[in-house]
Write the structure tokens for this entry.
Amino acid sequence: MPLSEQRFAWFRHISEILYLFLIALSFYLLFLSRTGEARTVWEVLHPAFIPTLFVATSLLSMILLTSEKVSYKLLFIIVHSVLIHSFFSVIFPAGDLSGQQMDLGRARLIYDNAVLHGLPLPSGEPLSSQIFKRFNGTNFHAALSVIFARMFSIDLLWVHLFLVPVLWGGFTPIAAYLTTYTFTQNEKVAVLSSLFISAFPYATYFGAISVPNSLGFIFFFYSLYFMLENLHSDDFKTKVLMLVFSFFSLLSHYLTGVIALSLLALTIAFKSYRSEKTSFTTAKFSLMISFIVSVSLLPLSLIYLRLFRPTTQTAFTLDKFYELPAEEVIGLSLIGELIYGFDLKIALLVIIGPAIALLCMIYQLYSLKRNPTAKFRTHIYFLCAAFLMMLLDYRILKLFMSGLPLNEERLWVFRDFIAVPFVALAIYEVVSSLKAFLKAKSPPTISTASLKMLSKANILRVLSLVLTLNVLIPVLLGGWITLSLSAAYPQVAPLQTTWYELEAVKCIEENTNEKYVVIADTWTIYAGEVIVGVSNPRAYYFGEFNKTGYDLFVNMKQNPSPQWMLLAMNYTDTTIAYFIVTEPRLGTEEFNNVVSRALQNKQLTVEGVFGARKLYVFSYSKG
Amino acid sequence: MKNLSELSSIEKLIIRDNKFLFTALSFATVFLCFLNLSLSNLPLLGTIATLAYFLINGIFLGHAFFEKEDAFFRFMFGVLLLIMLLGFVGWLAVIIYNLDVFRFTLVLLIVATLSSLSNRRVKSKNAT
């Protein structure tokens, strides 16, 4: 090995060790940020965390541009990815206050064998509805969480919180790498794309919360890769894997399943277009028809979801055009929900990636026109069509539909998956052009000996080359990824599940031998779901959207008396009822009023006071 | 480099699965998980058993379905398929009845058997 290469390898190893040290430090700082009472991660994040992460990410970007082995580069990216998707799980005691706690509540029932014969299926429910309940992603997600919890022999809470961050961190970078490599055949571009998936805020957010939809996104990304593989291969195994991953996308969540099916239809069309023996016009026409079918599959499936889920009220509508001012409609069609609470920085961070990808796609399509024999033209056409499909579907859902069972912005994750290879390609092209430009302007050989003999102007050129390639570009890339975290993790949020809410729920669970019911606000119900599950017949917490539970809590707030607790016990066939009130949830004035009235009622017993008198638990038992 | 060649030799050893040694080892990890859940509930023991289970069966599945891929991708694909298989069989158990300790053990055994059989199938196909 020549001396200069040896020096470079030595420098690379030092950078890698430094990177690993900084990542370990970042994990440590993240653990230091753990808190029992906060609204957002930004309130409590250690002040040294973001600077450390920024330096580590810049260093990683630098390592990616070297000739290190791909597997090592991917391992470094995986560690980085797990770190940036673990904010909620590490910092908050029960993860993000969202759907993941509801899913954990359902998984808890399976883990504790609280409900037998599958999840509870009310009798008299239509068959289609029962099929949907069995096939919806909650069961698959819960099964995975329970299996891991039993294998590791640790509590379900920990496994559930870290399941998606770890799987996402471990497998999406590889999917991004493979997808990009399939049509670029360039390892450096592919590795860059596996890092840059973290620069897309919505993708980062879904990788940080443990919900079935996130699992579906992971499987969808692999089905996308096998679809691309299938475009140039007739291998039976590729076809089977493409279908298997699409099936698992569907098993995890209907949204990812439907999008995978839409893209499957598009893949078949592109593949037949590629090998089309008929006329050019006929082939183009059939491709167009397939594209329209693929675009319409998602809106139509959401409409017909009501066959399986009767509560769904999705419909096509033009109401938004009549009700909203023209500028709002235009804003919605351009940047979607970002127009509400518009923050330029956040909007830019969400839009910049897809915008670069769009420009790169246009450039690629233009290049393909000049080079009709390009090897991977079908792949690029397919990805451009898929990207366009996502843009159209988002606008159809946003502007022409109402009563959707999910927010339309979830489509941005699919869009980001398709965009990331093109962003990496664009970055690589810019870096390569810069390199070529600066090299052309610099002397041919650079060594310490020759440096002394160079003129001032040439030294400046050499320095600019070294600085730009090894410092400026990695710093810019590292800065972009670190900054995009501020758009990924919410800046405003309600108070997360607190340590004293969890303590109160645990205390009740540990000290009650009979069947019990808890009357509480939605936030405490989330805490209850995390520990004992939702609607557990032995330890009953009403579901988050249960009207009876809500009404009972409102009545107890207004008039804390055993009357409502007896009603709750009769309704749930339990013998003890608990009433929980929390100061930060009710507000100081209302909390004090409710507590003083409850204390005056001698029939109610104070079961416990938690969190420096911020939470009271009252109880009443039958007989 | 040395680490990589060591990993590669471990992989070859597991794939060869002489006299079903690694299949038996994989079943032993399942039994260990079952015993751990029934008696001690030690996370350390669970973690060791899980890692061994994932290593053996991940390599089996990686070899069975992604033989032509690079070693790193082969292993990662194997682990992903293993997770999917565990999830799928677990999901079947949930929708049919439940996923208590006994059925959980059954799920692990089914997946370990399927992985070992897939590995055997590809191995015998390559031998002919």
Q: What stands out?
A: Chain A touches chain B at residues 70-71, 74, 110-111, 113, 115-119, 134, 139-140, 142-144, 146-148, 150-154, 167, 170-171, 174, 178, 219, 222, 237, 241, 244, 248, 251 (CB under 8 Å). DSSP finds 28 helices and seven strands in chain A. The radius of gyration of chain A is 28 Å.
